[in-house]
Amino acid sequence: MLVRDRMTLYPFTVGPDTPLLEATRIMKERRVRRLPVVGRGKLVGIITQTDVARASPSPVTTLSIWEMHDLVAKVKVRSAMTRNPVTVTPDTPIEVAAFTMRDKKVGGLPVVEDGHVVGIITESDIFDAFIELMGLRYEGTRLVVGTSQPAGLFELVKGLHAHGILVRNLLAYPTPDGLEQIVLRVTVGDESAVSALEEEAVKRGDQVLLRY
Q: Which residues are registered as beta bridge partners of 113?
C-alpha cells in the first residue's frame, strides 16, 4: 500500500501572509488540525493547531480582551508555521510514512509531487490503512501461528489452500524468542478444516498461539 492509496487529495491550504485567525477559522470549520502553507505554488511550511496555540497570548496575560484580539489579528501564518516540513511523495510506502511520522513526532505529512502539494496523510489515515491491511472490516477467523521452520509460512499457506480456506490478509514478523509470528485472517470455513490445519501446524513443530 502506498501513500497515494490513503492520502487526502488536494487539502485546504493557506498562504504565508494569511492572518493566523483565518487559518484557525479554516481548521475549525473544516475539522482539520493542520494546513499546508503554500507560497507561489510551492510548499513553504505547515501550520497546526499546536502552532496556533503557541502563537496566541497566554491565558494569564494582563492584556485586555480587545488588546489580545488586536494583537492576534496582526499575526500572520508565516510567523507561526513550521518551515521546511518533512514530506512524502504519493509513491512512498505507507509504512515508511508511518515510521517518518513516529520518528519525527508529527501527526501528519504533506504529500508533494514535483514541488506541489497534492495531498496530506495523517495518523488517522495510517490507522485506517492498518485496519484495512488486517481485514478487520470483513468477517473471518484470525489465526496466529509461531514457527521456527524456514518454510513455515509456505507450509501454512499451502495447508490453508489444501483445506479450501482463503487467506484474506497476512502479516509476519520476528519475535524476541526467535519465532516467526504469522498473523492471518481467513475466510470463515468449516471448523473441522481449521482444527485439522492447527493439528498439522503442531505436528510440524509450530505453535498455534491464538484463534478467534
A: 116
CB-based contacts of 61, cutoff 8 Å, min separation 6: 68
Q: Max Cα separation, the chain? A: 77
Tell which residue, 123, 121, 113, 46, has the closest CA to residue 85. Answer: 46
CA distances (Å), origin 18, targets 47, 84, 158: 11, 17, 59
Angle between helix axes 94-104 and 123-133 (nearest 10 degrees) is: 140
Q: Is 167 exposed, middle or buried (0-12, 13-18, 19+ CB in 10 A)?
A: middle
Instruction: Assess if CATH 1.10.3720.10 describes domain 3-131.
Output: no
Tell me what pLDDT residue 172 has: 85
Identify the burial level of 41 via C-beta atoms within 10 angstroms of its C-beta, where 0-12 means exposed, 13-18 middle and 19 or more buried: exposed
Fold of the CATH domain 135-211: Alpha-Beta Plaits (3.30.70)
Q: Which residue has the higher pLDDT, 79 or 145?
A: 79
CA dist 21 and 77 (Å) reads 9
CATH code 3.10.580.10 region(s) in the chain: 3-131
What residue type is assigned to position 176 of the chain? P
pLDDT at position 139 = 76
Q: What is the pLDDT of residue 161?
A: 79
CA distances from 173 to 44, 49, 176, 184 (A): 38, 36, 10, 12
C-alpha cell at 168: 484474506
What percentage of the chain reaches a pLDDT higher than 90?
48
